[in-house]
Design a protein that fits this description.
Number of strands: 5
Helix content: 25-40%
CATH topology: Heat Shock Protein 90
Largest sheet: 5 strands, antiparallel
Order of helices and strands: EHHEEHHEE
Number of domains: 1
Oligomer: single chain
Radius of gyration: 15 Å
Strand order of the largest sheet: 1-2-3-5-4
CATH architecture: 2-Layer Sandwich
Length: about 140
């Protein structure tokens, strides 16, 4: 398993995404799935960077663990910020779905990343010892 723990800052995104790309390619995932991995992970990381920690948090952290087995990729994203389950449906989901149908000029910003995370990966969430643990599974190609 490959792991990387970095500050939960925008500047950490390239290194975290690079690790996921490398693991996805090692798993033998096709290019379309690799791009899906990147998109889902970026959405999850941006949510953590933007919302998990208070602005004055001196040392916000995020950890990415990548596991490749049997042609499948499992990404585990851990942060120690405010509890939040991105997999759990909310009362705002109907609004988010309607937002997808709206013209670009009439769309409200925000929330679409949750739809991407749920729809483009097999996602699971747990709160473990004060940490948010998001598991994103991508099955083998073909």
């Amino acid at each position: 398993m490959d792991s990387l723990r970095l500050p939960a800052r925008d500047s950490s995104l390239p290194d975290l995404l690079r690790l996921a790309q490398s693991c996805a390619r090692r798993a033998g995932l096709d290019e379309q799935t690799v791009q899906r991995v990147e998109l889902v992970l970026e959405e999850a990381l941006v949510n953590i960077i933007s919302h998990a920690y208070p602005q004055d948090e001196p040392n916000p952290q995020v950890q990415l663990d990548c596991k490749v087995a049997g042609g499948a990729l499992t990404l585990t994203v851990t942060d120690w910020g405010a509890a939040f389950d991105p997999v759990l449906p909310t009362e705002h989901d109907a609004d988010l779905a309607a937002n997808l149908e709206a013209d670009l000029d009439n769309r409200v910003l925000g929330g679409l990343g949750l739809i991407l995370i749920r729809g483009m990966s097999q996602a699971a969430y747990a709160r473990v010892d004060g940490a948010n643990v998001l598991t994103l599974n991508f099955p083998p190609a073909g």
